[in-house]
Design a protein that fits this description.
InterPro entries: TIR_dom (IPR000157), Toll_tir_struct_dom_sf (IPR035897), TPR-like_helical_dom_sf (IPR011990)
Number of domains: 6
GO biological process, one term: signal transduction
Structural class: alpha/beta
CATH architecture of the largest domain: 3-Layer(aba) Sandwich
Radius of gyration: 31 Å
Strand content: 5-15%
Distance between the termini: 86 Å
Pfam family, one: TIR_2
Protein name: TIR domain-containing protein
CATH class of the largest domain: Alpha Beta
């Protein structure tokens, strides 16, 4: 469908050109894009109008006095009423001086609900809304797909009761918690539909906030929607918190006045992993207590404490569970009908049995059947069972030999979210890049977000997977980004409006990473520091600069929200522990709860104090049951002391919780399973894990595969030659990796190759004993094993006594194994 943009040339620069840039070129008739050399003529106008479905006229003092606009209005009305070539006319007042009863507006046009729309972004949103309504009318299946919604009756009923309870205020915020893709926003959306809060054609814009963001990002992203008064964002790191909350509150009142609502994907910014509402949001709640309007719908990763439901009357909380079995079946039937598919009842039972209660998985199952047919979809049913993990692996594998596609994916993973214009400025405007982007949309690799879908955002699961792959940016992309960064630093004018927020945020992070912040220090917000610290720690392993940035930002800690302050200090403590800096103890005292214990566990693990590390990790897990980082580290501690039985259950749980895609979890589970003498019939599971490592694209996956495969050949196949050959191949590829050398040591233990064991021992002494305190214990274990194989049992008791900070139960097991009284 095409849209004709009728306007005065005098309104082009400040309004209409902004609208045109936010819309796809092929969908609009706009003189600068459509007419030859941008020059209007009667013939060009008639041709454009005859090919249009929607006529949008921007009403202002300028346009109402324009003979071109008057002609276009006359012609559009004729096409609408006499020939039905045009489907709809949509007038938008863009000038405060024009009133709906202005005599220059034709009578037939005044019959429309004429409103002033000062924001070009809001105009684009309204145009999109009209296009959706027309699309639903033309293509009923699109409307049907949008309206498919099954179950959740108790939640919808609770919502209706709350809205109709006139003894209480209208909730300003609706919070739906639950797992990603469980349908949290869909529940809020249909609740709003059911209570006549919005129309089906209204699609609220979405902003994303994560645990490393705070109120500054909330304000930036609301402003970036362009649905409120256009303003400069004047927030710096030293802006008092109450001022930031006041700005945020004003934005929410403006959204209400513009009849707008916004969705937020909250991944720990508003509701934290400890199930608390962050401080700044509590303050914001107080500021908008009289708003009387449902302005924000929040899809939260975490479920808030039940007590909040009584303390915060102006917020409605719901937790969204998986669909029940009957709801899964009903939803599956709806999608089958949408795809014009008819299945035998036994086939329906088969596919419904694979579903786990995620609406997106149900839709994917119907699409897979449509694409492959019933028999082939059954054969590939693992794609439905593990639809997120396996689908990601299969999709990315398609591009493993395509350097151009991998380069684009590297760029998308570098930004996470990137504006259209920024994207094409970096990759270039050639057709191949457009084709790749369309392909990525079609496969669900990325989606459009923003009020007018002007940003490209990677699917979260795919983004995590690509980050683990450590894809390298092509040189030409890096050069383009560096050039843009230099221009940003030298040319940025604080009085300018931010055009592309994702580019702005990314350039500030790059400036911090490259220590080029002198000219833009006034722009920095706490989240800029935190995200940069995270990258320095996780990816670049630059612990010294993490400490420098943390110290710099914490000089303003009185202006920073407590949650984001804790996150900054958390990375500071991790870096101090890595540097074995005694200041760690001073800083960790300022962190409370499970994180405090986790950080001490981490510190003791690095110090080789195994018993203390276990004690602290277990304390952290007692305070927070689902603490993945503590559980992951605890597994590594147990593996380091060969306590495979204790490690096994934790490693298995980590592996399953991470959707089987993290090679570190696969490797830990494989090792604990392989070496666990209490588990029998493990061959099938071990081979499955090897297969997952073999097809995993993470840059550590090949190393883990070679190590695991060589151990499997040794322990399960008893194949000395192949296992030794394969671990030697791993040593050639990863010559400085002491874990590979240790795997070879244990393979040689299996085959009692004493001379080779002594050689490995000497290599370890030469290269690794000074790196970590825990490596001294590793060396002692080697001596114990070699002494045992040589029959030199008299020295073993004294060697066991040299094992520092080992739990007593583990030492007792060693004494029993070597028959020491």
């Amino acid at each position: 469908m095409k849209v004709f943009l009728s306007h005065s040339s005098s309104d082009k620069d400040h309004y209409v050109r902004v609208v045109s840039k936010k819309m796809e070129r092929d969908r609009i008739i706009y003189d600068e894009y459509t007419f030859e050399e941008g020059v209007k003529s009667i013939e060009e106008i008639d041709r454009g109008l005859n090919s249009s479905d929607l006529f949008v006229v921007f009403l202002s003092e300028n346009s109402l006095n324009s003979h071109w606009v008057k002609y276009e209005l006359f012609k559009a009305n004729t096409l609408l009423t006499e020939s039905s070539k045009l489907e709809r006319i949509f007038p938008i007042i863009i000038d405060n001086r024009i009133k709906h009863d202005d005599k220059r507006i034709p009578d037939w046009l005044r019959e429309n609900n004429l409103k002033v729309v000062i924001s070009p972004n809001k105009a684009v949103q309204l145009i999109h809304q009209r296009l959706i309504e027309m699309s639903f009318s033309k293509h009923p299946k699109l409307a049907e797909k949008n309206r498919i919604f099954v179950g959740r009756n108790d939640v919808i009923e609770e919502f209706e009761m709350r809205i109709n309870d006139f003894r209480k205020k209208v909730p300003a915020f609706i919070i739906a918690s639950g797992l990603p893709t469980i349908g949290r926003k869909k529940v809020i959306y249909h609740s709003w539909i059911k209570t006549d809060t919005i129309k089906y054609s209204y699609i609220p814009p979405i902003i994303n906030l994560d645990s490393h963001e705070s109120i500054e990002d909330f304000v930036f992203k609301l402003c970036d929607l362009g649905l409120t008064e256009r303003r400069k964002i004047e927030i710096s790191i030293s802006t008092p918190l109450e001022v930031k909350v006041g700005i945020a509150a004003k934005l929410l009142y403006e959204l209400r006045d513009e009849h707008q609502r916004v969705f937020i994907n909250d991944n720990g910014c508003i509701i934290t992993h400890s199930r608390e509402l962050v401080g700044w949001f509590k303050d914001l709640y107080e500021k908008v207590s009289e708003i009387g309007y449902m302005v924000i719908g929040i899809a939260s990763k975490y479920r808030v404490y039940e007590a909040y439901q009584y303390d915060y009357e102006n917020i409605m909380f719901s937790h969204i569970e998986e669909l029940s079995k009957s709801e899964r079946e009903r939803l599956f039937y709806r999608y089958l009908q949408l795809e014009d598919l008819e299945l035998l009842s036994q086939d329906v039972d088969f596919f419904v049995g694979l579903l786990k209660g995620y609406p997106e998985q149900t839709m994917y199952a119907s699409q897979l059947i449509k694409q492959l047919g019933v028999a082939e979809a059954k054969r590939k049913s693992h794609l439905i069972v593990d639809y997120n993990t396996d689908r990601v692996v299969e999709i990315i594998k398609e591009y493993s030999e395509d350097s151009h596609a991998l380069g684009i994916l590297a760029l998308l993973s570098e930004f996470g979210t990137i504006g259209y214009e920024t994207f094409f400025e970096v990759v270039g405007n050639d057709n191949a890049n457009y084709r790749y982007l369309e392909e990525f949309y079609a496969k669900g690799i990325c989606v459009n977000i923003g009020t007018n879908k002007e940003y490209i955002r990677l699917n979260d699961i795919i983004h995590d997977y690509l980050i683990r792959m450590s894809l390298k940016l092509p040189n030409e992309y890096s050069l383009a980004i560096t050039k843009s960064l230099d221009a940003f630093i030298h040319d940025y004018n604080q009085d300018e409006y931010i055009i592309d927020l994702t580019e702005y945020q990314y350039m500030i992070k790059r400036a911090l990473l490259e220590n080029k912040v002198e000219n833009i220090a006034r722009l920095l917000a706490p989240s800029h520091y935190l995200k940069t610290m995270k990258e320095l720690y996780d990816i670049r392993k630059n612990y010294k600069d993490v400490i420098i940035l943390a110290d710099r930002v914490l000089t303003n800690e009185s202006f920073i929200d407590n949650h984001i302050k804790q996150e900054i200090r958390y990375y500071l403590c991790l870096a101090l522990a890595r540097k074995n800096d005694d200041r760690f103890h001073q800083e960790v005292r300022k962190i409370s709860g499970a994180e405090h214990d986790f950080l001490y566990g981490f510190y003791y693990r690095l110090s080789g104090k195994t018993d203390k590390a276990i004690e602290r990790y277990e304390e952290a897990l007692s305070k927070r049951k689902k603490f993945a980082r503590a559980q992951r580290d605890l597994v590594q501690v147990y593996l380091s002391i060969d306590d495979f039985e204790t490690a096994y259950n934790l490693a298995k749980e980590n592996y399953k919780n991470d959707k089987k895609s993290n090679p570190f979890h696969i490797h830990a589970y494989f090792t604990s399973l392989l070496r666990n003498s209490r588990v029998e019939d493990k061959s099938i599971e071990l081979n499955k894990l090897l297969s997952e490592l073999n097809k995993n694209q993470h840059n550590n996956a090949e190393e883990f595969y070679l190590r695991c495969k060589s151990q499997y050949l040794a322990y399960c196949e008893n194949d000395e030659k192949q296992s030794i050959d394969l671990i030697n191949e791993a040593l050639v590829k990863y010559p400085n990796n002491h874990w590979v050398l240790m795997d070879k040591f244990y393979i040689c233990v299996k085959f009692k190759k004493i001379n080779e064991l002594k050689k490995i021992h000497n290599d370890f002494v030469k290269n690794y004993t000074n790196n970590l305190a825990s490596n001294n214990n590793t060396l002692t274990k080697m001596k114990i094993i070699i002494a045992s194989l040589e029959g030199n049992n008299d020295v073993i008791p004294s060697l066991i006594s040299e094992l520092n900070y080992y739990p007593e139960r583990v030492l007792e097991k060693l004494r029993t194994r070597y028959e020491i009284n």
